[in-house]
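Practice problem 4.
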C-alpha cells in the first residue's frame, strides 16, 4: 500500500501573543500516537510568514509528521483533526499538508 506523509505545523503562541500551554501539544501528540502508533516531531522551531486579508502574520511553529497508509479514512482523520486543532490552539488557520512518500 502507498504511504502518505501528513505534516502539521502547530503554533507556539496564541494569536494574541500568549504562549500555548505544553499540555495542548502533549494532547495532540498522544492523539496521533493512539491513532497511528507513532509520530515524528521536529524539535527546532519553524518560522512561518503569511498574509490573510491584508494582515501579515509571523509564527513560530512545531512540525509534527506521520507516514501512514494512503486511505480515505486517514485523510478524513486529518480533516477532522484540523477542525479540532483550530479550536484547541485558537487559530485562524492550521497548516496541514500531505504528499505521497516512497520508503526504501
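Answer key:
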Amino acid at each position: 500500500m502507498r504511504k502518505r506523509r501528513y505534516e502539521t505545523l502547530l503554533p507556539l503562541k496564541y494569536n494574541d501573543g500568549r504562549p500555548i500551554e505544553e499540555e495542548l501539544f502533549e494532547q495532540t501528540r498522544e492523539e496521533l500516537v493512539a491513532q497511528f502508533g507513532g509520530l515524528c516531531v521536529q524539535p527546532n522551531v519553524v518560522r512561518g510568514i503569511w498574509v490573510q486579508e491584508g494582515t501579515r502574520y509571523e509564527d513560530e511553529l512545531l512540525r509534527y509528521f506521520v507516514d501512514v497508509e494512503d486511505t480515505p479514512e486517514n485523510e478524513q482523520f486529518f480533516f477532522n483533526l484540523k477542525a479540532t486543532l483550530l479550536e484547541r490552539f485558537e487559530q485562524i488557520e492550521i497548516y496541514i499538508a500531505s504528499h505521497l512518500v516512497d520508503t526504501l
